[in-house]
Amino acid sequence: MTSTYGELRAQLAALTTEAFRPELADIDRLPTAEIARLMNSEDAGVPAAVAAQLERIAAAIDATAERMGRGGRLVYAGAGTAGRLGVLDASECPPTFNTDPAQVVGLIAGGPKALASSVEGAEDSKELAAADLDALGLTALDTVVGVSASGRTPYAVGAVQHARARGALTIGLACNAGSALAAAAEHGIEVVVGPELLTGSTRLKSGTAQKLVLNMISTITMIRLGKTYGNLMVDVRASNEKLRARSRRIVALATGADDDRIETALTAADGEVKTAILMLLADVDAATANRRLSQTQGRLRAALP
Fold this sequence. Notes:
Elements: H1 2-13, H2 32-43, H3 46-51, H4 54-68, E1 74-78, H5 80-97, E2 104-108, H6 126-135, E3 143-148, H7 154-165, E4 169-174, H8 180-184, E5 187-190, H9 205-224, H10 241-255, H11 259-268, H12 273-282, H13 286-295, H14 300-303
Parallel strand pairs: 1-2, 1-3, 3-4, 4-5
């Protein structure tokens, strides 16, 4: 056991994300405003680290969109903060893009309980990752994104290895160069943000970087799938008053129609923003608009005359 912990300690010591920064050893003695300034300065470098990986990110997105366009799913798999960020991104897709909850899925080591508390040993199990993916009925059309700041977390690496063996598309998102996770995936993305303000606290810069990349993966994939019209969320699901108001504003921005015409169109379209926009821009009824959208796989721009 001591040998195992010694090996793990050596592995962690070699990771950029785990590096100790002597110049910050007295951070707890600084005024609060100075600590806040330091954190803000640290975070400012994250977008540049993401920018260095944009070509790899874009290639991964194009491959993901191609498979999802044929009916595949997008699955995130990670432990701890990385897992929570994947679950968060997946949970935001249905209200934003009107996706089926099963189309974008977030898996976290240890299951839902791990969202709020640690599940002992879950992140150390490649077998658990394989079992979680098998429970989804993984297919070759699916895309699995393993997320791990260290790039060595067994759950994330195991998910990518298992998915690749099943013929699924694989993406490995890590925050250390030369990671096992990126090496295991077809598309390796390593956003190297450097040592954290608090030694090893990868919920900081690493978590921010992961959030930025996951935003790109889901958002741009949905753009490629026709879930937007320009920069308008025309597939938004109006599940509350705010979103209903946003739906009306989106129709107004896309068509320039007055409130009465927008209300009439949305009522006839059963609240479907995309259908209402097509009705107003093409001067057709709801049935015709829905038929055109069906013929273009829901792509509004392609359905316009």
